Amino acid sequence: MFRYGVPVFVIVITLFAGCGPLETQENTIEQPVEQPHGTGAGKEPKGVVRRPNIQSHNARFYHESQRSRVSIRYRNAGLNPAYSVRTDLAVFLDGNSVLIEKDTFTVPTLAPNKGLELRGTLSDTFFENVMNGKTTLLMEFTVRYQDEQGQEFEALSTWQFSRSTLELFLIEERAN
Which of 42, 109, 157, 175 is deepest in the core (most CB within 10 A)? Predict the structure, then answer.
């Protein structure tokens, strides 16, 4: 037993010694740079990109008071305010664009972690066609905005209505 026990014990110890924590590659940020005293500015890590980042979520299609409505929430998930925020909401039934009444179009400034909702109203006939499966509803939400330097960004999300869950689900999301 001693003849086989020692080699097995050595192999087990070798395996445990080689099974340390996995090495991961981490993104490092350079040490904070102190601002001159009296400027009121705090320490800011060098190399951190601070810009707005608008994301859409919670798209909805519902029927209320003899009207079909679509809505989408969006928020600035970035670290800086977004300026000149222009939104566009388009609805397509079987690939054909449908005219909708939109509630809002442009917001001058959207602060970080601040969210808004864009709503639109469709004529009542669309609800029945979507609910009985005669048409496929797609909703496209586009938002264009600028950062502090005036650089323009665009984010697009495409949502499709599912009759089985009665909700819109995200098909595609793009941002530049």
Answer: 157
Q: What is the pLDDT of residues 13-31, one digit of tens each?
A: 554 544 444 333 333 334 4
Calculate Rg over the CA atoms of the chain.
26
pLDDT tens track for 125-165: 778 888 888 889 999 999 999 999 999 999 999 999 998 88
Q: What pTM was estimated for this model as a whole?
A: 0.69
Distances 91 to 3, 16, 69 between C-alpha atoms, Å: 77, 59, 11
Residue 83's identity, in one-letter code, is Y
Query: φ and ψ at 13, to 5 degrees?
Result: -65, -40
Class in CATH terms, 54-175:
mainly beta
Structural domain boundaries of the chain?
54-175
